[in-house]
Amino acid sequence: MINLEALFKISYGIYIISSGDSTKGNGFVSNTALQVTSEPIKVAICSNKNNFTDELIKKHGAFSISILSQETAPETFGKFGYKSGKDFNKMDGSKIKYGSTGVPIVLDDAIAYMECKLLQTIDIGSHLLFVGELLNSEIIDATKQPITYAYYREVKKGHSPKNAPTYQTPEIEGTTIDKDAKKYKCVVCSYIYDEATEKTKFTDLPYFWICPLCGSDKTKFSETP
Ligand code: FE
After folding, report:
1. CA of 131 to the centre of ligand 1 (A)
2. Separation of 211 CA from ligand 1 center, angstroms?
3. Ligand 1 centre from 134 Cα, in Å?
4. What pLDDT digit, counting tens, does each position of 17-26 carry?
5. 174-224 belongs to which CATH class?
6. Residue (of 23, 220, 224, 19) closest to 101 by Cα position
7. Which of 35, 72, 101, 216 is deepest in the core (most CB within 10 A)?
8. For residues 140 and 110, is the Cβ–Cβ distance under 8 A?
9. pTM
């Protein structure tokens, strides 16, 4: 038997995998990056075949991994996680460093990075497994903790409304919110805003409130059953 719940017990970090050069770079949010050998140090990453970054990794023969902190801004997830680099250059407006191979390394919200030379590309069906040799790695911020996938899904999502300015609104539990509570879904990332648990009506959130998962604004939400 397969119990899918067991798969959720695997621990992952969250990273931005990047490739390209100073004229055209791209990166995407990934939870699969792992060291696979120690002599020499090899690191593997996994990427969906639809990812634009795949083409850049194959073309340039290198990739970088930025390890994100627990305090990563929603905008960073929104930019690198839910938008395609085919449409615009994701590196524009981000803090970027170029490695010895010429690949961009995203420094936004990163606590450390690794730069790898591509050694092997393995076709595993829907995804490609890239194995690279570590060329360079550096700590960017030793004071912050790396974000885990579990933290991203549970803690960050659960606490984000506290960051919204409306957190100060009066306690409305027990009033109309309970029986009239509605749910709103982000059309970009499928995050659900549930008025019953957030204790704040969606319409009362300020115009500058953004999706805690992907950074989309309120206009990207629609009511859902
Ligand atoms: Fe979203």
Report:
1. 31
2. 5
3. 33
4. 999 999 999 9
5. mainly beta
6. 19
7. 72
8. yes
9. 0.73
